[in-house]
Amino acid sequence: MPNKYNIGDVFYIDEGHDPHYHIIILASVNSKEPMYLIVYLSSSKTMVDRTTTFNKNEDTFIDRFSWVKYQSAYIISETDLDDGRIIHYQCKAKSSTVDKISADLPKAKRAPNYIRERFADWKSDQMFSSI
Amino acid sequence: MEIVNALELEQMLNTSTKVKKEVRLLYDDKKALQVLNSFVRLANGKIDKYLAVKLMYLFEREMLLRTGTPSLFGRLCSIPFGPIVSEINTAVDSTDISALPSHDNLWQQYFSLKRNELTSNAENPGNELLSEFEEELILELFSKFKNYSFGRLKKYTHSLPEHKETDSCIDISYFDFFTENGFSKEETTELLQEISYQVLFHNAVLKNAK
Fold first, then answer.
1. Per-residue burial over B16-37, b = 16 or more CB atoms within 10 Å of its CB, e = otherwise
2. Cβ–Cβ below 8 Å for B2 and A17
3. Is the distance from CB of B75 to CB of B86 less than 8 angstroms?
4. What does residue A92 show for φ and ψ, rounded to 5 degrees?
5. Distance of CA B205 to CAs A31, B19, B96, B160, Å?
6. Pairwise CB contact (< 8 Å): B201 & A71
7. Best residue in B132, B186, B195, B208 to probe A by mutation, most A CBs within 10 Å?
8. ipTM score assigned to the predicted complex
9. Which of A55, A115, B156, B197 is least surrounded, with the fewest CB atoms within 10 Å of its CB?
10. Which residue from A minimizes the CA distance to B210?
């Protein structure tokens, strides 16, 4: 069954003020239920993690200086992501945005070990599945 | 969830029973266990209980100071023995060899406490929930404090700006923690907004996620 969501999909949670954006960086190709690795963009100016930063307008949805909060990277199932009551689709991120995060994630010191391991595993699964 | 200012956030994160309970839901028992296990292994499998409990508090403290985000989301408290993460104190006590065994108590599976000495059992709970940043912090804290005597460690932790001397138990709110440690009102507001968003995101989406 094909995955419902794709790499680069940008979501936000409707919480009544400035949205916080979450980006799908990688999807599983082998698991029973589709799973996604998502990261969150923070625009907080305090305690910035400078591993991956974005300037205003670097992508269509980025309207201020933002950074990837790898500390809050998650693996999430399609069922959990598919809750239309609270999660809203925003847009598709540019491939350069996804590539930038994908290049930095393996060396992101604040990302939990299981996120980095899963990222490496899924990347290789993806490569083999495309052969 | 409309956020107005630091005082409102303070009220939400620390006073409102509902939000307080939601923040507590984020307490990560398995991650706390992996952090403690890392400290115990650095101590070659045996560590003084007081040192272990203080190292766990100092770990959460440094994560807040260096990243602005809690790592364990435990309840921070001042008690007569200095500041602690309440859940961890309780969990460590539950591993006492005289405590009632409970098959769903993960801590009893991995640790035994005997006469104030905490020993790790053979099984390893892993480290997948930790990050490289956290593992480096664990090593740094262990290296700094491993040779502190009880008195020196007590004096150090009692001198921390967020600690309040008490005969009972006083909650250390994130608001108080940041402001007592020199963060401005604006910075504290931003940090509390980030924490409250994490609570919201967890409760909205991540209940079933890893």
1. eeebbebbeebbbeebbbbbbb
2. yes
3. yes
4. -105, 130
5. 20, 16, 36, 36
6. no
7. B132
8. 0.91
9. A55
10. A75
Query: Could you tell me which of A23, A49, A53 has the C-alpha nearest to residue A37?
Result: A23
Q: Does the predicted model carry a pTM greater than 0.80? A: yes
Would you say residue B21 has pLDDT above 90?
no
How are strands ordered across the β-sheet holding B117-120? B46-48, B117-120, B111-114
Q: Structural domain of residue B12, as residue ranges?
A: 6-208
Q: Which two tokens stand for residue A105?
A: 């994630």
Q: Is residue B171 part of a domain?
A: yes
**Tens digit of each residue's pLDDT (9 = 90 or more) over A57-82:** 999 999 999 999 999 999 988 888 87
Residues of A in contact with B187 (CB under 8 A): 46
- Yes or no: say if B145 and B43 are a contact pair by the CB < 8 Å rule: no
Handedness of CA A53, A59, A62, A68 (dihedral sign): negative
- Supply the DSSP symbol for A45: S
With 90 as the cut, is the pLDDT of residue B22 above it? no
| Residue A15 pLDDT | 67
Q: Would you identify the CATH topology of the domain A9-129?
A: SH3 type barrels. (2.30.30)
Average pLDDT rounded to a whole number, residues A20-28: 89
List residues bridging with A75 in a β-sheet.
Answer: A37
Say whether residue B167 is in contact with chain A using an 8 A CB cutoff.
no
Q: In A, which residues are within 8 Å of B73 by CB distance?
A: none
Q: Give the DSSP H or E segment for A76.
A: strand A74-77
CA atoms within 13 A on the CB side of A47: 26
Q: How many domains does chain B have?
A: 1
Q: Which of A3-12, A60-69, A74-83, B37-46 shows the lowest per-residue confidence on average (mean pLDDT)?
A: A74-83
Q: How far apart are CA A123 and CA B49, in angstroms?
A: 42
**DSSP state, B13?**
I
> Is residue B1 in a domain?
no
Q: Are the beta carbons of B33 and B133 closer than 8 angstroms?
A: no
